[in-house]
Each structure stands twice: as structure tokens, then as C-alpha cells.
Amino acid sequence: xxxxxxxxxxxxxxxxxxxxxxxxxxxxxxxxxxxxxxxxxxxxxxxxxxxxxxxxxxxxxxxxxxxxxxxxxxxxxxxxxxxxxxxxxxxxxxxxxxxxxxxxxxxxxxxxxxxxxxxxxxxxxxxxxxxxxxxxxxxxxxxxxxxxxxxxxxxxxxxxxxxxxxxxxxxxxxxxxxxxxxxxxxxxxxxxxxxxxxxxxxxxxxxxxxxxxxxxxxxxxxxxxxxxxxxxxxxxxxxxxxxxxxxxxxxxxxxxxxxxxxxxxxxxxxxxxxxxxxxxxxxxxxxxxxxxxxxxxxxxxxxxxxxxxxxxxxxxxxxxxxxxxxxxxxxxxxxxxxxxxxxxxxxxxxxxxxxxxxxxxxxxxx
Length: 366
Fold this sequence. Notes:
Elements: E1 2-6, H1 9-19, H2 30-36, E2 50-57, E3 60-68, H3 71-77, E4 81-89, H4 93-109, E5 114-117, E6 129-130, H5 149-155, E7 159-170, H6 182-188, E8 193-197, H7 203-217, H8 229-241, E9 249-253, E10 256-265, H9 268-273, H10 280-292, E11 295-303, H11 312-326, E12 331-338, H12 342-350, E13 354-365
Parallel strand pairs: 4-5, 11-12
Antiparallel strand pairs: 1-2, 2-3, 3-4, 5-13, 6-13, 7-12, 7-13, 8-9, 9-10, 10-11
Helix pairs in contact: 7-8
């Protein structure tokens, strides 16, 4: 018999460790999952716009799903969606149906007419269901889901849309001559532009300026909804704990922030090695990680629209890649890019990046 628990963080956290024995899934630490799924998350201040469920079979958690209402996004894009996320499920249609039906029932009680996922909170965080590339280990902030999940969703009446990719570049093989274009050199030699390498200090200023450039640069992106500084700080809090100075850079034009790249060491090998458990072994693995990690990941990059086409993003990227090389990094991951975002995909060509995973979203009228 399969039963359901609501808002039980222990069973919710345990699900992927019970059902994903032989794949590359990586979880956040339990305290982080708990923090995101609570009213400390600025998205959930009033506590009534989200919930989450765990499916239990023979006393073992075998599936989970979160469902939320993002009212600001619906208003901005004239939609009536509920999002489902953190959908991890054993290859069992009965379990999948119970979870999806529970999410749909919740969404209906809130008056929504369509449900969409995976969306782990917002379109500025992890989204998507993987379609291929299952042999490729994911980077931080990249979704990893099993190969049977699309079929389970299709059997439940969902249709796929919004294709996207994640990518990986071999840092040693990036051709730096790609960054010697006249417009990049002009920016580098123009005293009106300054490049701030974000370190362990000045984080508050970085949060404010980074949030501003993100909102300005992503304003016209599909389904994007501006975020507050509070939301930005909440989402980036843990990333800043592993900041490697020189990898995250903001560009200013006459003291106005106009471009940013957030790049951090990839935490996934560490989390995978300790099974997302903050125990004694974590300390030893963390020390190893600090000295021997060779993977980094770009979480996002953004340029203020009126500065598009001037080479600012490539100028920042040049500095990030140069610093990655100096610090001995070997691999660079890039989080999801939608197929419709041709300009960002061209940046992947400059990096000679390969596609790691194809993903998409799934939606259903309810």
C-alpha cells in the first residue's frame, strides 16, 4: 500500500537516496532543503502558497513532489500556472500518479488551471526534466533526473515544451584568441569601465548590484520574473560560502553595474562523496575539495540591455576564464540555457562547450 505524507521534511529528503542507487543525482544538505521549503524562504512568507508531499511504500519513502503558486509570475506573464518541483520518483506509475494527483488537487484548490514542472521554485533556479545525457555528472545548480521520468509524465497526460540544454567546457582547450576582438579590447582599455572581482568581502554590495543587473538583463527572457534583493541573498547565501575570489566578476560603467558573471567551484563532487551528510567525513572531504577540486560552474551571466552587443559579457568571460586557468581549474559547467536564447548559445560556441544534458519542461491543463 502506498500512503502520502505532507510537509514531512525527513521522508522528503530521504527519497532520492532510496530510489537513485546507481545514478548521478546530487542532493543539497538536509538543512538547506528544509530552509528552502519553509517560510524563511522569501517566496513563502505567508506559508500558504506551497506544500510538498512524500509517497511511502512499505515504510520507505519512494517519491516526492513540491507544488507552489508564484503569483507575481502569473500576473506578469498572464498565466494561471502552479509549479511542481523536486519531482523524484521510483519507476512506478502508481507512485507517480499519487504524487502528481496530490499536486494537481492542491493547485486546483488555489484556483490554477495548469501545472508546470520541474520548476524548483523559480525560473532563476533549477528547472527541467532530463531527456538525455544521463551518463554525464551534473554541476551545481543543474537538474539531474532519471531516464524514465518523461515517460511517467507523458502517461499522466503531460506534454513537453520549453527545450533547454546544460553545457560543459574543457578550460584548457578554450581558445583565448576568441576574446581578442576589437570591441573587447576597447572595453578593457576604456577607463569608464571597471571590473570588480568578488571576494570574501563586500558581499552585501555584490548582492545589491548583482540583483540589479540580473533583473535588468533577464527582463525579456521567457517566464522571467524580477527578484528582490532579499530573494537574491537567500538563494545565493550558500554559494557565497564557497566563493573562490576572482571567479565571480561585476562590470561597472561609470560606477553603474552593467554586467555580471557568477561562477563558483562546483560543489556536486563534494556533496556526492558525503551523500549530502554533514558528518565527520565531510570535514576531511571538504579539505580535499578546497585543494583539489578542478571543476567550476557558471550559475548565470547577465548584461544590462542598453549595453548589449558591446562585448561586455565576453570581456567579463575573458577575465573569468583567465582566472580559472591560473587557479588550475579544468572543467567549467554552465547551467540551463533555453533553445530560444540564441545569444547565450553563441557564448557556448566561443567556449567550445559541449552539451551535457537536453532538458524540457512538462505541462498539463487541470
